[in-house]
Amino acid sequence: MNEAHAGHTRHKEYSLPVAVASAAVLYWVGQAGGVGVLAALNALALFSILYSAFSVVRHADVLAHRFGEPFGSLILSLAIVVLEVSLISILMLSGSAGETLMRDTIYSVVIIVMSGFIGVALLLGGKRYTDQSFNFTGIKHFLISIIPLALMVLALPTALGTGRLSPGQLLVASAACLLVYVYFLRIQTVTHRCFFVYEDEDSDGHHAIPSVRSSAWHFLFLAVHLVAVIGVTKLSSAPLQGLMTALGAPQAFTGFLVALLILSPEGAGAFHSILQNQVQRAMNLLLGSVLATISLTVPVVAAIASLTGQTLLLGLDLPSILLLVATFMVCQTSLTGGSTNAHSGAAHVALFMVYVMLLFS
Predict the structure, then answer these.
(1) Do the Cβ atoms of 265 and 274 come closer than 8 Å?
(2) Backbone region of residue 312 per phi and psi (left: phi > 0; alpha: psi in -120 to 50; beta: other values)
C-alpha cells in the first residue's frame, strides 16, 4: 500500500449513529401524529436507509476489489437476501405475516429488480457510454435459473386453480429451488467462473484510496449496515402504512415501497457499477439477488409454514403473470446479446411503469 495512504481509509461509519437515532425516533413515535408528522418520519427513514445503503455498497466495493468477481457481487447479494429471509421468518413466527407474504416478496423483488433497477441502470449506462458490453453467457445462466423457478412458484399455483401448492408439491418446489441454486453457485464460483467476468471491465479505477481495514472488518460492518437498513425499514413500515392510508394509497403499494427500500443497497451498488462501465458486476449483483431471493425464500418459508401450520397463497393473478412473462421475455432479448444501450433500458422501465400502474388498479 502506498505510504501516503497508510493509516487512511475511505470508510467512515457516520451512517451508523444516524440509523440508530432514526430507529429510536421511529420506535417511540410510531404512527402517532397527523399527515405532516408521518411525512416527516418517512423522510427521516428514507434518508437513514439510503445513507446506510451507500455504506453497505462501500464495504462491498472493497471486498469485491479484494476477492474479485463474481465473489464481490455474490457477497452483497447473499447478505441482503439472508437478512430479507430473516425478516420474513420473524414475521411468520410472530404470527403477524399474511398468507401472501412470500408471494408478494418474491414477485416484488423480481419486478423491481428485473424491470425497474435493470432499466434505470441501462438508461444511466447508455446515457454515459452509449453502448456497453458484458459476458452474455453468465447472464444466460442467471435467466436459465430464475425463469423456471419463478414461474413454478408464482404461476403454477394459479394454473392449478387453487392458488396454492399442496405440502408435497411445496416440498418438491423447495427441493428444486435448492438444487438449481447449489449447481448455479458451483458454476459461478468454481467450474465456470469465467462466465461471470468481463475481462475488459476496469474494476480498479474507482479504488484510488484503498482501505487499510481487514476484510473481516469490512464483512462485519457490511452486515451491521445491512441490519440497520432492514431494521429501519421494518420500523418505518407502520408510519409508512399510516401515511399511505391517509393519502388513500392501495395496500399493495405499501409493500412495494418497503421492498424497494430493502433492495436499495443492491440498487445503489448496481448504479455505481454501471456508471463505472462495469455492466457485468451490476448484472451479477441484480440478477444474483433475484435468484437468491427465490432459491432461499421458498425452502425457508415452506419449512416454517409446515412447522407452524400456516397456509401460503402463492398464485398471482393473470395480469401479474402476463407482466412477469413479459419481463422475462425482455430480459432474454436485451441481456443475452453481449451489449446493451439506453433503448433496452427504456423497454425495462416501461414494464416497471405498468407494474406501478397495476398496483393502483
Answers:
(1) no
(2) beta
